[in-house]
Write a structure and sequence with these properties.
It contains 14 helices and no strands. The protein has 388 residues and is an all-alpha fold. It has 2 domains: 178 residues, Growth Hormone, Chain: A (Up-down Bundle); 200 residues, Growth Hormone, Chain: A (Up-down Bundle), CATH 1.20.1250. Helix 3 crosses helix 5, helix 9 runs parallel beside helix 11 and helix 10 runs antiparallel to helix 14.
Length: 388
Amino acid sequence: MRYETKRLVVLILIVFISGLSQGMLLPSLAYILDIMGISSTFNGLHAAGLYIGMLAAGPFMEPLLQKLGYKPMIVLGGLLVIVSLMLFPLWGALTFWFILRLLIGFGDSVLHFATQTWITDFTHAKNRGRTLSMYGLSFGIGFAFGPLVAETVKMNQSLPFMISSVLSLLAWVTIFTLKNESPTYETNKISLAMTMKRVVRVVKIAWLAVVTILLFGYMEASLNNNFPIFALRNNFEGQAFSFLFLFTISACIIQIPLGMWSDRFGRKRVLRIVLSIGTIAFLLLGVFHQNIVLIAILLAIAGGALGSLFSLSIAYMADQAPKELLPAGNLICGMAYSVGCIFGPAIGGAAIEKVSSQSLFYTIFFALLLVSLAYFLKKDHSVQRKAT
C-alpha cells in the first residue's frame, strides 16, 4: 500500500472510532442518568459538557499544531479520550462524569482538528469534496453504530465504556505507523492573539461555510436529542431510534456521491440544492407529523440531503480560504459545530414544551430556510485568496 493511501486509511479509521465513541456516550449516559432518577432538564445540561470541552480546546489548537505537528496532536487527543472512557465505570459521581465529558470533548476536538486539517492540507482541490466526504462518511457510520454499543448498558453499565475504550485503543495505535508532518506552508510563530485574528479573517472570507456548519450542529443535536421526545408524545416511541438510524444511514449512502458532484459542479451549487431539499423535507415533516410512513420517508430524504453538510462546508471553506489559513478555518468550523450542538437541543426542547411536538421540525425548517436564502443571495468571489 502506498504511504499516501495508508495515511488516509489510518486517519479515516481513527475518525470512525471517534464517531462510534461519541455515538455511544450520549445515549449511554442519558440512560444511566434517567434510571438514577435525574431530571431530563439536568440530563440535557449534563450532556452539554462534551461540547463545552470542544469549545474550550479551540483557542489552543493552532499554536499546538504549529509546535507539535499533526501526529502528536492525534496521539494526545486520542489518549485523552481513551483514558476518560476507561475512567467512567470507576466512580458514579455526576461531577466526576461531567469532568470526563469535558475531557472527552477536549480530546475529540484536538483529534478532529488535527485529522481534518491534515486531510485538507494534503488533498488536492479537485479531489477535496470526495476525500472530505470519505472523512464525513467514516464519522457518520461510526456515530450511527454508537447507539448499538450503547445498548449493552442494559446488560452492564460499564460494558459500553469498556467496548468503546478498547476499540479506540486499537484504532489509536495505528497512528504510530505514520510519519509526523506539519502544515506545508511557512508561518511565523502563532500566538493565541494571532490565532483569533486569523479566525476572524477566515470568517470574513468564508462566513457562509462557517454558518452552515453551525446549522448542521444545531440540526443534528436537536434531532438526536429531541426526536425521541416527539415520538413519545405522538405514540410511536418504539420507532424513534430506527428513524434516527435511517436518517444517518441515508446520509452515509449519498455522502461520497455528493462530495464527487461538488468537485465536478461546484461546492456552492451542490450546497444550494441539498439545503433546498432539506428545507422542504423539514417543512413537510411538520405538516405530516402524524403519518409514520411519511415521517420515515422524509427523514431518509432529509438525511441524504443534509447529512453531508459538514464535509461539504469544510471543503467550501477550504476552497475560499488561503492555504495558510486552513488550520484557523478548521478551528472555527469545529467551534461553530459545537455551538450549534449546544443550542440545538435547548431550542428544540423548549419549542416542544412551549408550543407543540411538531414545532421541533419547524425550528429546524426556519434555520434551514435562512441559510438556504443566504446561498442564493451571496455573490461569488474568487477562491484561494492570498494572505496579507
